Amino acid sequence: MVFNWFRRQFNRSESPAPSPAPEPQPEQQEQAEPEQTEEAVDYLAWAKAAYQNIQQQEQQEVEPSSEVEEKAEELEADVTPEETEPAVVPETVVEPSETEPVVESATESEPEPPSESEPEPVMETEPEPEPVVESEPEPTPAPVSFLERAKAERGARLEELKEKAVEAPEPEEKRRSPAPQELDEDFLWSAEVLAKQGRRPDEVSLEEINWLQQLRQGLGKTRRGLINQLKAVVGQGPLNEDAILEVESLLLQADVGVEATDRIIEQLQAKLREESLPPEQAIAYLKQLLCDILDYPGGKAYDTTFAPEQDVLNIWMLTGVNGVGKTTTIGKLAHLANKSDYQCLIGAADTFRAAAVEQVKVWGERTGTDVIANPGKNTDPAAVVYDAITAAQSRNVDLLLVDTAGRLQNKKNLMDELSKIRRIIDKKAPDAKVESLLVLDATLGQNGLRQAQVFAEVAQLSGVVLTKLDGTAKGGVALAVSQQLGLPIRFIGAGEGIEDLRPFSSYEFVEALISG
Ligand SMILES: Nc1nc2c(ncn2[C@@H]2O[C@H](COP(=O)(O)OP(=O)(O)OP(=O)(O)O)[C@@H](O)[C@H]2O)c(=O)[nH]1
C-alpha cells in the first residue's frame, strides 16, 4: 500500500487498510472544508480509532515472525555499524581545477547572501593543517606536490561533509520509528488537525502524525513569542489604537513583513468593527485571514496540491543561496518521491562547487536515487542537465530534481547560468512540466526575502521551499513570502532528518502556529 505524500492520499489503484476499529467516523469523509465538520465529529473517538489503526499497522509492519526476528537480531549486530556509517559514495570523480573555489562547510549555519563583489573563499583558507610526511601514521605515500596535497585535503574534507550529511538526520529517524506509546496530547492535537481536513482515521499513518507533531514543535518558538500574545489581544474584542500597535509590532517581530501585517490589521479591524466577535470566533477569523494570505499568494489562486504530473517528465529545478538547505531538500524530496512510488532521478548541476556534487551523491546513495553528474573539471551545468534529461527520458523517470549553483560571482553569472539551463530544458524536454523552486531559509527572515528577490529576477520561479522552520521565532516569514513574493510555498522543512520535509498545507501550518 503506497501513500502518495504529495497528494496526501493512497494511490488510487490501491485500497486503504481496513479500519480495525468500528469507532465513529467523520460524517464528511470527502474533501471536507476544514472546520465544517467540527461539531459533527467526536475527535476523541476519531483519535482513538486512528491510534488503534496505527498500532495495528505498526505491528504488522514492524513485528517480524519469531524466525525472522531471530534472523534480524543476528543481522542487527552486523548491520548496525553500517547503518550508522555515512553512505559510501564512489571515489571522488570530480576534480576541480586549481582555480575553482573551494566550498565552505555544508553545515554552515549562517549563509551569506549572494554578493556581486564578495570573493569566494579559496582553497588556501581551509583550516585543516597540511599533511606532514613525518607524522603520517598511515603507510600511504605522502603527497608531494601542491596539487596532490590539495587533492588529499579535499578528499578529507569531502569525507567530513559526507559524515555530516548523514549524521544529523539519524536521531530523527530513530525517534520516529516506534509506534506511539500513548494517546497523548500531541497525538490528540495531530489527530484533530487531520480529522478537520476530512481525513479518515483508518487512512492516517504514524508518519503523518509525527510530521504534524514535528511541525507543531518546530513552530513553538514563533507561537510562544508571537501568536499567544496575538491571541490574547485579538480575543479581547474590537481593536483600539493600543491593540493595533501591539498586533503590528508582534507581527513584525515574527518577520511577517509590513505588507502582510498591514493586510492582517486592516481586515481584522474591519471585521471587529462590523461585529463583536467572542474570542474564539475572533481567533477563527484570524486563522482564516492567515490561510487566505498563504493560499492566494500575490492575490492569485494556486492549486494547493503540488505533485508530479502523471505520464510526463517533471523537472524541478532547485535554486537558492548556499547553506539554505538546497541539497538537503533535494535529498528529502527524492525520499518523498521514492516513498510515493515515483521514479526519481537527480541532476547534480551545481558544478560551481565540487563538494556540492559529492553531497548530492551522498543523498542519492542514502535515498536510493541515481545521480547524474559530470566528472570533468569546470563542467558546464547545462551539459549536466542535458545528460540528466537524456537519462530521465530513457529510464521513464517521473521526477528529475536538478540542483543548481547558488552563489556565482555576480548576478549576471547566476542569470546566465540559470537561463542557459532553462533553455536546455525547454529544448531537450519541451513537453516536460518544469518547476523552478526557490529554497529559502526561514531563520533568515526578511533577509532571506532580499535574496529571494535576486533569484526572482533571474529565474522563472514558480514556488518556494521554506526550510529550517524548526527552532526559529521567524516562522511568520511564510506570510511574507506569500504576500511579498507572490509565490506559493510548496514544501516546508522543519528539521535536518530525511523525513522532515513535507508538502505545505496552509491549514496545518496555521493550526500549528495558532492552535498548537
Ligand atoms: N534545522 C534544520 N536544518 C536544516 C533544514 N534543512 C537543512 N538544514 C541544515 O542546513 C545545513 C545546510 O544544508 P545544505 O542542504 O547543505 O544547504 P545548501 O543550500 O545545499 O548549501 P551548500 O551545501 O552550502 O550548497 C545542513 O546542516 C542541513 O542539515 C531544516 O529544515 N531544519
UniProtKB/TrEMBL annotation:
> CDD domains, per this entry?
FtsY (cd17874)
Q: Where does GTP bind?
A: 320-327, 403-407, 467-470
Q: Please name the SUPFAM superfamilies in this protein's record.
A: P-loop containing nucleoside triphosphate hydrolases
Q: Residue ranges under compositional bias (Basic and acidic residues)? A: 161-176
- A Pfam family found in this protein is SRP54
Q: Which domain of life is it from?
A: Bacteria
The EC code for this enzyme is 3.6.5.4
Q: In what ranges is there compositional bias, type Acidic residues?
A: 30-41, 60-85, 107-137
Q: Where is the SRP54-type proteins GTP-binding domain?
A: 488-501
Q: Which Gene3D superfamilies does the record match to this protein? A: P-loop containing nucleotide triphosphate hydrolases (3.40.50.300), Signal recognition particle SRP54, nucleotide-binding domain (1.20.120.140)
Which GO BP terms sit in this record? SRP-dependent cotranslational protein targeting to membrane
Asked if Transport is a keyword of the record, the answer is no
Q: How does it sit in the membrane?
A: Peripheral membrane protein
UniProt GO MF annotations: GTP binding; GTPase activity; signal recognition particle binding
Report biased composition (Low complexity) as residue ranges.
86-106
Q: Does the keyword Hydrolase apply?
A: yes
Query: What InterPro entries does this protein map onto?
Result: AAA+_ATPase, P-loop_NTPase, Signal_recog_particl_SRP54_hlx, SR_rcpt_FtsY, SRP54_GTPase_dom, SRP54_N_sf
Primary location recorded for the protein, binned into one broad class: membrane
Q: Where is this region: Disordered?
A: 1-144, 161-183
Q: Please list the reactions this protein catalyses.
A: GTP + H2O = GDP + phosphate + H(+)
Question: What UniProt keywords apply to this chain's record, in alphabetical order?
Answer: Cell membrane, Cytoplasm, GTP-binding, Hydrolase, Membrane, Nucleotide-binding, Receptor
- GO (cellular component) term, any one: plasma membrane
The annotated subunit structure for this chain is: Part of the signal recognition particle protein translocation system, which is composed of SRP and FtsY.
Similarity comment: Belongs to the GTP-binding SRP family. FtsY subfamily.
Q: What is the official name of this protein in its record?
A: Signal recognition particle receptor FtsY
